[in-house]
Each structure stands twice: as C-alpha cells, then as structure tokens.
Amino acid sequence: MDIYLLRYFLAVVETGSFTRAADRAFVTQPTLSAGIKKLEQQLGHTLFERTNRRVFLTDAGARFLPRAKAILHECNVAQQVLDEAGKTPVLRIGFLTTLSNRKVGQLLASFREKMPDAAIEITDGTEQELENRLEDRSLDFAVSVYRGEPEDRSVPLGAEQYVFILSADHPLAGRTRVSAADLSEEYMIVRSRCEVLSETSRYFTDRNVRPRLVYRTPNDSRAVAMVAAGVGGTVVPDSLVDDRVSAVRLIGFDHERRLGLFLPRSDLPAETLEVAGAFTAHVQERWA
Length: 288
What we know:
By secondary structure, the protein is of the alpha/beta class.
C-alpha cells in the first residue's frame, strides 16, 4: 500500500470533494480519482459514496479511517526522528485559517525574539484538518477551536464574540446593536470558512430576512477588505475587526468561539521539548 494513496484518501475525507482534495494534494482530479480507485482495489472495498454535491464515507471507509491515520502517524514519526537527529529543533505549528493574520504574526514575531534559534514550520487549516494533522503527528501544536478537550491535550486561550461589520461610513456604523430587520436591505458577504456560517444563515431566515448575497470567499482578509470598500457586510469574530470597518452587535446572535492551544504528544524528541515548553508558555502569556 503506497503512502501517497492514504494521503489522497484523507484529503478527500477532510475536504468532502475530489476536486478540493486534488488541489490539497497538488495533483489533478483524474490522478487523485485513479489513486482512490487503486486504493479501493488493493483493499477490496469501496471507500466512498459519490453524489452530485458531496462525497461520503462508506461503512468500510469509516472503519478504515482511523487505521489510515495511524499508519500515517507512524510514518511521520519515523521521518521526524530521522530528520531531527542532530539538527535544529523544529516546531510544526498549525493555525486555524480564520484566525487574525495580524495576531498570529505578532505572536510568532515575539516568540522568535525570545527563541531566535528555534525553527518553525507553519500550516493553515480548518478545525478538522488541524485535528487530523495532530492525530497523525504531522503537527506538534495547533491553535484552533476549543471544545473542552482534556487538560493533557489542550490549554484554553479564551473566547471572542461574533459581530457584524460594515464600512466605516455606513449609515448604521454609529450604532452599537442592530437587528436582522435593520439589515434586510443590506448586501451580504459570505465567509465560507466561518465556524458559525450555518448559525448565521439560520439567524436571518428565522426572522424572515434574506439579505442579498454579493460575494463568497474563503479568504477572510479579502472579505474584510470588501466590507471596508462598501461592497457589503459580514459576520466575523472580534479579532478580525480593524480600523477600516465598524462593528455592531447583532441582537439575538450570541454565539462566540472559544480558542485553545492543542499540545504535542509526550513522545516529542528530547531536543525539541525545551522549545515546545517555551512555546506553550509564550502562547499562554501573549494570546489575549
């Protein structure tokens, strides 16, 4: 069984799409599809059910998933042991895609000042992608959504509210709170990777308000820039608000996201433990 086939398999699981999985794996869709077919032939089982809009795991695929993660984990650990022997310790850190770029940059800049000799590798991802990479040991740390995981696996970093942002010169910009009805004639920008995307949609539909959708993007920086340009408004966590836009609270929309630092397993190489401990302490001290 070729390792790259397992990576194709997990890419499809994580993205729910052969097209997006091919982009993730840096191959064409026909190449990825052929790889999945080859893996299914090797295993003697169909792993995915395909529909026009989505890809789902079969029962066999669901049973195979934890084993695939375990195999990749062992491969990554073996590679890490070889790569780190006699070399500068490397911390592999994952950040939730929807975190503030400025905040992540400031955190890493201050850590590099404290530990200038530490080497860092950065990965962006969704909550599920980061969780998978922690499980297969291709990441040491991750800053992601915290859902009360055990203390030996994570450290809570606090919570932030969601707000609705408008251009700074918008007529509603001077308000502190607005209702769904106040936004009934507004244009809406959709952040496609927002953790409360379905809750946001439900908030408006439950109140019989359907703002016109004018832009959809996975790029949060682009979304905020479009709001600042007056294209429309959108829901963001507090940390994405900057001086180009105005933030207002949505009446009856009380969702928040809790963030946490997800910790490495206990089997890190000895030469990495000191840097890992310093990074844990630094994040707890500086993330606020």
